[in-house]
Design goal:
Uridine Diphospho-n-acetylenolpyruvylglucosamine Reductase, domain 1; 5-stranded antiparallel sheet; globular; alpha+beta; 318 residues; Uridine Diphospho-n-acetylenolpyruvylglucosamine Reductase, domain 3
């Protein structure tokens, strides 16, 4: 497998040269906020202006040769298997920063961290992304899952998404205006199509930079006060369902399940909808604890909690 992957990478670099950090056997624990996950067969982090051409070539050739590809954003909402990930992990973190600004529209590359996105908007005197301050993850991943918190979600400000569509095989560049009807709670149209997000444009409102930064600092302090940074975690484990009469964390709390533990994974003593890695947790521990929580809630209430975190199998494929 390694020889095949090395050849694919070599061929793509010859056809579309770019700056590339290539590693073989790279632990996914180094690239996940949960700090778990075994080795990726091939871990690639391209960067530079020619990145789009390289990833287009890579995904095309890998698909043609049956080599699995997993596209990684900020690693903030995933649990990679203890056995690792077969094939290629494509880390888009090298494609970051402001791409374009026109009056009240700010376009950001998909690998931009959410905290950096909020900072970029603040520096430009634009309001609307403050709620992202302190949130782990990247713009690409946030658009893909329609990330939300504090009563706001990415699609509230999203005006257009740029990317590469591989639905018909050969990559086609697209710019897709945001249609609110295609977004929902933790849902986006990109979850149902074979597309790679390259950038996202946000229509924002003029604001006073000092006030914007102050609001951002408030969100960061709130996340810290709620214990989001005390241990490695992925934030909320389960989605909320209004039909259940209350947030998932409240339901778990009322069943006395805080601090429930399997191996090194534990339900946070301060929040029922957060699982933390107390040290030495495995992906299997986290998955087992997630399933145990869901089973206990189902048994007690009849509610089926839906996980928000993504469990990435060893054979996850583009």
């Amino acid at each position: 497998m390694k020889e095949k992957l090395e050849r694919i990478v070599k061929d793509c670099l010859e056809n579309a040269p770019c700056d590339l950090d290539a590693r073989y056997g790279e632990p996914m624990a180094n690239h996940s906020t949960f700090k778990v996950g075994g080795p990726a067969d091939c871990f690639l982090r391209p960067s530079g202006a020619s990145l789009p051409a390289f990833v287009a070539a890579l995904l095309t050739q890998a698909g043609a040769e049956g080599a699995p590809v997993f596209v990684l954003g900020g690693g903030a909402n995933i649990v990679a298997a203890d056995s690792g990930i077969r094939g290629i992990v494509l880390d888009m973190g090298g494609w970051a920063g402001e791409a374009e600004r026109t009056e009240d529209v700010l376009r950001l590359r998909s690998g931009t961290s959410l905290d950096d996105a909020a900072e970029a908007a603040a520096r430009a005197g634009l309001s609307g992304l403050e709620f992202l301050a302190g949130m782990p993850g990247t713009i690409g991943g946030a658009v893909w899952m329609n990330a939300r918190c504090y009563g706001r979600e990415i699609s509230d400000a999203l005006s257009e998404t740029e990317g590469l569509d591989f639905s018909l095989g050969a990559p086609e560049h697209f710019r897709l205006p945001a249609d609110p009807a295609e977004f929902g709670y933790k849902r986006s149209p990109f979850q149902d199509r074979r597309a790679l997000i390259l950038s996202a444009s946000f229509r924002l409102a003029p604001g006073e930079p000092g006030a914007i930064l102050a609001e951002m600092d408030g969100y960061r302090r709130d996340r810290e006060d709620k214990g989001h940074y005390r241990f490695p975690s992925a934030g909320s484990v389960f989605k909320n369902n209004p039909a259940f009469g209350g947030p998932s964390g409240k339901i778990i709390d009322e069943l006395g399940l805080r601090s429930l533990r399997i191996g090194g994974a534990q339900v946070a003593p301060w929040h029922g909808n957060i699982i933390v890695n107390t040290g030495g947790a495995t992906a299997s521990d986290i998955r087992a604890l997630t399933e145990e929580l869901a089973a206990k809630v189902r048994s007690a209430t009849g509610f089926d909690l839906e996980p928000e975190i993504l469990f990435v199998p060893a054979t996850s494929s583009w």
